Structure formats: C-alpha cells, structure tokens
Amino acid sequence: MDKLRKGFPVLKNYTYLNTAASGLLPEKVFEFRQDHDLDFLVSASVLKEKQGEVLTEVRETVGKFFNCAPERVALVPNFSYGFNTLLEGLEKPKKALLIKNDYPSINWPVESRNFKCFYAEIDAHLEDNIRVALRKHQPDFFAFSIVQYINGVKLSIEFLKEIKKEFPETIFIADGTQFLGTEIFEFDSTGLDVVISSSYKWLNGGYGNGFILFNENVTGKIQPKHLGFGSLQGKYKAHEGNFIGKFEPGHQDTLNYGSLSVALKLLQTTGMDKIEAQVQKLKDFSKEKFSELGLLEDFVVERKEHSSIFNIKGDDKLFKFLRSENIIASQRGAGIRVSMHYFNTVEEVEKLLQVLKSRR
User: Fold this and answer.
1) Spatial contact of 149 and 309, defined as CB atoms under 8 Å apart
2) 3-class SS letters over the chain
3) pLDDT of residue 283
4) Which fold has domain 31-269?
5) What confidence tens digit (pLDDT) does each residue in 294-304 have?
6) Buried b / exposed e across 22-34, counting CB within 10 Å, b at 16+?
7) Where's the Aminotransferase class V domain (predicted)?
8) Do 195 and 213 form a contact (C-beta atoms < 8 A)?
9) Which phi-psi region, left, alpha or beta, contains residue 294 (left: φ > 0; alpha: ψ -120 to 50)?
10) Which of 239, 327, 329, 334 is deepest in the core (most CB within 10 A)?
11) CA distances from 276 to 3, 272, 282, 289, 340 (A)
12) With the C-alpha atoms ordered 88, 96, 203, 330, is the resulting torsion angle positive or negative?
C-alpha cells in the first residue's frame, strides 16, 4: 500500500477523501510540468516547434490506455468544451434523453439549446427507467454520466453495452469524468458512440486537459463547426475538414496535454488491475459500513452496482468538524460526499467512521 501512496505528498497532511472534487497531482506530473516550463523559458519557439510530435504522442497514449484508435481521439481542455462543440455539431431540433439531476455540465448545455428533452429518474431502478424512456421517446441522443457526481450511482458497462445494442440508432454520449481511472475501460468493446472526460479527477492529470473517444461510426452523425490553424496540424489531422481537427482549433497546450500523458503512464505503471482491485475493496467496505450506520439513501443501499463515491448524511457542522480533523470531503446535495481512490486505505475510511460515530 505504501507503494501505491508514494508520490502523493497531500496524503501526509490530510485524510483525502475528495477525488470526486479534485484528483491529486502526482509528483511525476509535477516534475514534468516544471521541466516543460523550464524548456519553454529557455527555448521558446524551439520547444513549440515540437507541438505536433507531443500531441501525437499524447493522442496515442490516450488511445492505447482506453483501447481506441488514435485517429478517433480528440484532445480538448475539459469536458464542457468538448461536449458543447459536439452539441453544436448536431442538427436541431432533435430529441434528447438525459438523467434527471445529472451533472450540470451535461444537462444545462442540452437544455439551453433547441432540443426536446426527456428524463430518466435516478432511483433503485435507474436502468429500467432508462430503458423505458428510450423505448417511449426514441431520442436521437442520450447524454449521461457513467457515475453520478452527487451520490456515486453507477451505470455498469455491461448494461450500457446491452442497451446500446437495443438502440443502435441513438447516439450514446457518456461523461467519463467521475469514472475513468477507477477500473479497466476498453472503449471499442462498449459500443458507446462518444465518451468525453476531463482528467483532473480520477486520472490525476491536473487541470486544463481532457479528451474525447469516438466510435468509428459516429463521425457522419456529428458535424462540428469549429476550425482553426491547429485543426490541420499533426499526424492524425493531415487533411482539411478532418473530424477530430474540428475539436482542436488553435494552438494546443503541450504543458497540460503532456501532463495527461505522464499521468496515464503512471497509472499504467501502477497497474490498472491493481487500481481496480483496490477501488473495489474500498467501495465494498465503505458501502457496508455506511449502510450499517444508516448514512446512505435507501435506494443506494438497494443497488448492486456502485462507485467509490458516497453521499453520507451530514450537515454543515459535521462538514466543518471533518475539516478540523483534516478529513477532506465535499458538501454536495443534502449531504457530505466522500470518495476513495486507489491511494486511499481502509484505515482512512475507519478514521472517518470513528469521527462520524463520535458525533452521533
């Protein structure tokens, strides 16, 4: 376990149960960022001449990590930029299916445009609710979080594979920001059309970088309109009007995208199998203990599939007390959200439990 925690100095100062808000910056990523900016300081445009090579390497690293061909990987600064660019490339009006109370960066951009919106309710039967809504409304696209940001409710990849087969004409657009980095994920085997993700949470890539993974069949259904000098620069953007280039106009930030590449390589070195096993251990233990104390919503306890994000019952006083004990969490919805990544331990969860019991 000490090996898994090595390289995250924050863990020496806090019981950090807040990756769902902001992932930790690994020392290796910090060192890369220092070296990059030092190179820029002393070489300026000489460094930037290598931008195409750097971005090609990042794209290939992302593609390899998530099993998606690099020519179907777009590099974007964050989820919202990529998602809004994609929405502008969809013909209007169209019918959209959303999950009620999903992350605002998903629902708000759809609702603010000329789409007719329908919703699936989040409860113990979320999967059934989605299936019923898809059958009833026959939406042109379904935009959703794989893991819900408030309470950690998770849609299994197996369910998504199954439901996509039933509705092949609906464009499935998934937000992976609260999911990618917690378990092995092979995009091409899922059947999903689009997965968009920021990298500052579970991938520990820092801010200012993200990516989009595209199914090879989706490009004709989306017509993005953004264009700029950067749209034609690089190994995978050789021709005018190419698809991923329309998500990458202008000069790209080699500091931030390079940080993503370093972060993914660190996860690879650690081993996604080990990371998945540790996250599974933590979420199983946490769910059992939180359930015993009556800290979770009933429908969350009922559900078989869940993430390592939990919204526990607690008010502002409890939140401030946790912070006084150097336990870092977030206030979300009506409770306190805690989240565990692979560098966390059962002992840290037990410390949280002891503090919670002392306040009852």
Assistant:
1) yes
2) CHHHHCCCHHHHCCEECECCCCCCCCHHHHHHHHHHHHHHHHHCHHHHCCHHHHHHHHHHHHHHHHCCCHHHEEEECCHHHHHHHHHHCCCCCEEEEEECCCCHHHHHHHHCCCEEEEEECCCCCHHHHHHHHHHHHCCCEEEEECECCCCCEECCHHHHHHHHHHCCCCEEEEECCCCCCCCCCCHHHCCCCEEEEECCCCCCCCCCCEEEEECCCCHHHCCCCCCCHHHHCCCCCCCCCCCHHHHCCCCCCHHHHHHHHHHHHHHHHHCHHHHHHHHHHHHHHHHHHHHHCCCCCHHHHHCCCECCEEEECCCHHHHHHHHHCCEECEEECCEEEEECCCCCCHHHHHHHHHHHHHCC
3) 98
4) Aspartate Aminotransferase; domain 2 (3.40.640)
5) 999 999 999 99
6) ebbbbebbeebbe
7) 16-352
8) yes
9) left
10) 329
11) 15, 6, 10, 20, 12
12) positive
Q: Which residue has the tokens 């998945």?
A: 276
Q: pLDDT digit string (tens) for 137-184?
A: 999 999 999 999 999 999 999 999 999 999 999 999 999 999 999 999
- 109 Rama sector, left if φ>0, alpha if ψ -120 to 50, beta otherwise: alpha
Q: What phi-psi label fits residue 327: left (phi over 0), alpha (psi between -120 and 50 degrees) or beta?
A: beta
Contacts of 194 (CB under 8 A, 6+ apart): 86, 171, 172, 173, 174, 212, 213, 214, 215, 218
pTM metric for this prediction: 0.96
Strands 15-16 and 327-328, sheet pairing:
parallel
Cα–Cα dist 259/339, whole Å: 23
Q: Which has the closest alpha carbon to 97: 142, 38, 55, 136?
A: 142
Q: What CATH superfamily is the domain 2-25+271-358? A: Aspartate Aminotransferase, domain 1 (3.90.1150.10)
Domain residue ranges of the chain, discontinuous segments joined by +: 2-25+271-358, 31-269
In angstroms, what is the C-alpha Rg of the chain? 21
Name the phi and psi angles at 206, rounded to 5: 80, 180
Position 290 pLDDT exceeds 70: yes
Half-sphere exposure of 95 (CA within 13 A, CB side): 12
- Beta bridge pairs of residue 117: 96
